[in-house]
Amino acid sequence: GLVSLPDFDPNHVQDPDQKRYFNQVTSGLYELGSTFKIFTTGMTLDAGLAALDDIYDATDPIRVSRFWIRDYHPERRPLSVTEIFLHSSNIGSAKMAMQVGARGQREFLSRLGMFERLPIELPGAMVPPVPQPWGDAKTMTVAYGHGIAVSPLHLATGVASLVNGGRRVYPTILQRLADDDGLGERVISEATSLNLRRLLRLAVTSKDGTGSRADVPGYSVGGKTGTANKAAGGRYAKNAKLSSFVGIFPAEAPRYLVFVVLDEPQGRPETYNYATGGWTAAPAVGAVISRIAPILGVRPRFDDDPLQLAAMRGVE
């Protein structure tokens, strides 16, 4: 299912608010921030260029022309791939992407369908533009979801393709036949997919993770936060954000994905005035999962978390 707000009332088709007739899920193109680190981590691991315990130096910001790549909550130390993911390090993600390179990054995202019209049975589905030029600076910013605009549907299907064992997902609103799993070609290995699921689960359960507010006891939620300054007129607005969280459950064998994007959320006293994905979108995803999981027949489990135990033992 999908929802785009503000919605419209078919009994009042003369409503002058055109935003009500725009499907932001399929037609809106947005820079979705750190949710893109799922792609960056997946492509680097799958290329064999890094393992989860490999170290990248995130001590200092990276200067790119007139700009600096910084971390929102800087650790100012070397970080492992796991720590880069949990702390959502822009610096570490940029350095990982540079190992893959511009061509490899572009080809990886292309395999996930990021630059094509997705075959969903709805009008108005957009084709995201390929960023041009795509050099080192673009490679580093795309690594953490800036400088590239895709629809929420593109992001959701891309993540689904990486966590389901590594096969391409083609979205549909039609009920599939019993013998049709809806999966296409392989995009990453099963081993890489397992590692991503472990990281997504740790991002919710670890004290260092940014997604703890999405956790729902018994349902093994995994996920990743995203916070991006909105682009307007060739500049990034300082106080206007898109905050998001993409969640999967149950993380050890995902059956469902929930993606929430909030346009310009406002910090409140209960969020300590933060408006980031971890404080706004993550709780929304948790609330959705807590409501829909029983309806979908997903039974809660309160025994040991298999993915968390495996992650603590280390990845094979």
Describe the structure.
- The protein is α+β, with helices and mostly antiparallel strands.
- The chain has one domain (26-313): Beta-lactamase (3-Layer(aba) Sandwich), CATH 3.40.710.
- It contains eight helices and nine strands.
- The protein has helices at residues 37-46, 81-87, 90-111, 136-142, 152-163, 190-205, 281-295, 306-313, and strands spanning 55-57, 62-64, 67-69, 78-80, 167-169, 183-186, 222-232, 235-249, 256-263.
- A three-stranded antiparallel beta sheet has the order 7-8-9, sandwiched between helices.
- Strand 2 and strand 3 (67-69) form a beta hairpin.
- Helix 1 (37-46) packs antiparallel against helix 6 (190-205) and helix 2 (81-87) crosses helix 6.
- The longest helix has 22 residues, at 90-111.
- The chain is globular and about 55 Å long.
- Residues 311-316 have low confidence and may be disordered.
Tell me the total number of β-strands: 9
Compute the number of structural domains.
1
Q: State the shape.
A: globular
Helix/strand/pairing category: alpha+beta
| SSE string, helices as H and strands as E | HEEEEHHHHEEHEEEHH
Q: What percent of residues are in strands?
A: 15-25%
Biggest beta sheet attributes: 3 strands, antiparallel
Give the low-pLDDT segments. 311-316
Rg for CA atoms:
19 Å
CATH class identity: Alpha Beta
- Which range best describes the helical content: under 10%, 10-25%, 25-40%, 40-55%, 55-70% or over 70%? 25-40%
CATH level-two architecture: 3-Layer(aba) Sandwich
What is the count of helical runs? Answer: 8
Strand ordering within the main sheet: 7-8-9
CATH topology call: Beta-lactamase
> How far is the N terminus from the C terminus?
36 Å
CATH superfamily: DD-peptidase/beta-lactamase superfamily
Mean pLDDT: 92
